[in-house]
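Notes, p. 3: input format for complexes.
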Amino acid sequence: MALLEAIGISKTYPGGVVANDGVNLVVESGEVHAVVGENGAGKSTLMKILFGIEQPNAGALMLDGKPVRFANPREAIEAGIGMVFQHFSLVPSFSVYENVVLGSEPRSGIRFERHKAIAEVKAISDRFRLSVDPMPAVMTLPVGQQQRVEILKALYRNARILILDEPTAVLAPQEVQELFVAIRSLVAQGKTVIFIAHKLPEVLEISDTITVMRQGKTVGQVKAKEVTEKSLAAMMVGREVTLRVERKATDQSQRVAEIEGLRVVNARGTEVVAGLDLNVHAGEVVGLVGVEGNGQAETLEAVAGLRAIAAGTIRIADKDATAMSVLDRRALGLASIPEDRIARGLATGATVAENLVATRLNETRYVRNGLLDLKAIKANALQLIERFSIRVGGPASTVDTLSGGNMQKVVVARELAEQPKLLLVNQPTRGVDLGATQFIWRTITDARDAGAAVLLSSADLGELLALSDRLLVLYRGRIVAAFVNTPDLTPETLGTYMLGLSTQTADEMKAALR
Amino acid sequence: MSSISGTNKSSRWSAVRKEIGRAGGALLISLIVTFVIVLLTSKDPLGAFEQLLTQLPQKTRTFGYWIDDVAKLTITGLAFSLVFQARQFSMGVQGQVYIGALAATYVALSPLGASWAGIPLGIAAAMLAGAVYGFLPGIAKAKLGANEIVSSLMLNYVAIELCNFLVRTNLPKPQAGVLTTNDFPDSAVFPMLVDKTRIDLGLILAIVAVLVVWFAVYRTSWGLKLRLVGHNARFAEYSGIKSTFIMVSAMTASGALGGLLGSMFVQGQTYGKLTVLFEGNLAFEGILVAIVARSRPLAVPIVALFYGYLRQGAQLMNIRTDVPAEVIGVVTAIIILLVSSSYSLAFLKRLFRRGVATAPTPAAAAGAAK
Ligand SMILES: Nc1ncnc2c1ncn2[C@@H]1O[C@H](COP(=O)(O)OP(=O)(O)OP(=O)(O)O)[C@@H](O)[C@H]1O
Ligand SMILES: [Mg+2]
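Output follows (884 residues plus magnesium ion):
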């Protein structure tokens, strides 16, 4: 008998988007069950229904063979279901253990039993190999640790079934491996895990069973052992997908961005970029390689004009841009795809059309005499929705009704609506499905082929190797190695430099630092 | 394409319906709770409720109180909506009302006041003064990082005391010791729109203000920037929007509305002169109006219509029965709580269904008990 079963689930959102259309899901006890599918296929919606956040319009849920209904998450939690969202719901200023026990604190009478809480949190975290210090405030922890706190929260409430919605999208590769260790130990101790991800190698590595969704329907359920990456991709997309892009030969003689002696000091006073020199030329992609937190993000933000710098100069298209405003830099042809689309790249409460023109409000195409040209704004949105195949109700839908991958497409569409001179890209395909990843890679490469200088950072080495002409490895804010991208360059070679285990000499780097 | 815009329209309407349902539900619950309180405290609860809910439209005079209140609540609601849309929490409308009223008074009592320019100049002076007074907390926040809530509240006290002081010392009075100025000349007082009521030019100003604010927020680039800053300031920065400029200008524009309200008070039919503490704490009620209207300019007058009714109805109840007007505070408190929380009608239905068994909140318990 299946542990958890969803039968014929349908869900139509107000506004008419059919997110689930007769979905079936059968989860066996003690397995890792992956749910895969393109952006907007309805995975998160299905999970929200399992967790009582959304109510289905039709269909039934069976738990232990008995029909159940969850009117809200509390009822789902009581039934032993826990969920970790892609966007965490922790109280930033509270400590780890406080966050874990919040709402069901151990107490005697009305007194909060602090020591007992700490001890219990420690015990669970040891038992499931989710090591995290219970004392510090959650906001001081890196994302990977915060995610563990979320998982601990669910386990503390005795979840038997743990739903993880795109847990790996926010993690660096090493953190993904640590998460997998924890998942295996959970399963070994009788828990069941439902897991959503877009990266197929990850899915094949961790899961036992895979349910594939497409456009609100389940297309099938398969054993992980019986499929390959290729066949799975074909099931998801309905056609063959190859993640490879051909780059054209381009003229790379012209320097577009010149960064000299860049130093950035963060709020805590630590030097995160320590005297960086680098140039990016028209028609090339320069990849910044490094474990997250070694200065890549700060470098990109400094060039975009979003972060104060401590020293150095930044030249864009032969102009000194060091002290320029964001708008002036954009006027020079700068475009940027930021790391965190929700925090930085979008106003989720505003409409898709408004988000798509936000960076162009000084252009007479959209604004004349201070008045918005609503027709032009709508036309622009319709055209970009079509060109970038964004799945959305229409230009007037607010961005928060979009699935994660489609939000990212809105950002990409806005930044690449016109050919940029200098394109800054950070984590372009986080949480983005295969088809869209291929599309975004293609779009970035097209911009490069047409003469854009591209500075790219990504936690995904495969992505860096697929897109870059040159690769610079950053370690503690310095370039420790530089390569011209060739087919024999491997992730392993990069890895030793990323971890700071070795450093190239100036001579070795010379060829790739131009 | 047509189908796309079709679904959008219907989804926008369903969203609007949902909001109306929420606000209406909140109103109903708060009235039920109020009724229970009145039931427990009044000798004649039905009579009190009758005064609160049915008497206002019966006489032209009381009807006029209502509409006059609606006009004023609309302006203060708009002023708060503007700053709330930019996610600034300036509380300065009250101070702007006093400063605006002072400016209008100086114009009205000057030789200019006796000319045809009395009304337009008085309004303009009031709006300008209010704008300056709204600008101050804005610029203090932009340049010095001063918290706008604190600085605007402080400026409110300054304005009230300044008004008191000038009425006592500087402004012409009919006789020593009274706390009002001379009556304004007729040419400086807003003309009556409906005979024997307080309904005057202020109502037209309020309607115009609604349209102007709506247009500014939804049809100009400034308005779009304002909303983007309000949605996500970090995104605005990234897009190259000068968020400090937007923030300061929103607070200034809202200040101009506050000033306008000041002129509507003193130049309106109600007063036609400046008296101390004339505003009777109406300015702050704009917060409630703005919250319930979700800071949407077009929703503000509708909310003001309902709220003005309750407010004046409570006054009648106060005068004619043993229930004090303060009871209406219960209504406002419950409405604010419900509307600003994420309660939904579905949630209410569930509460009502379980009400008796678990009695989770007084509201639901009261509802279920009925
Ligand atoms: N609150 C909402 N209101 C209206 N439509 C919504 C809402 N939430 C999701 N949708 C729509 O429902 C569809 C399915 O969304 P869902 O978030 O379930 O996709 P997903 O499979 O999780 O995609 P992703 O991989 O991009 O996260 C999408 O078309 C999305 O735009
Ligand atoms: Mg999702």
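Chain A has a mean pLDDT of 91.
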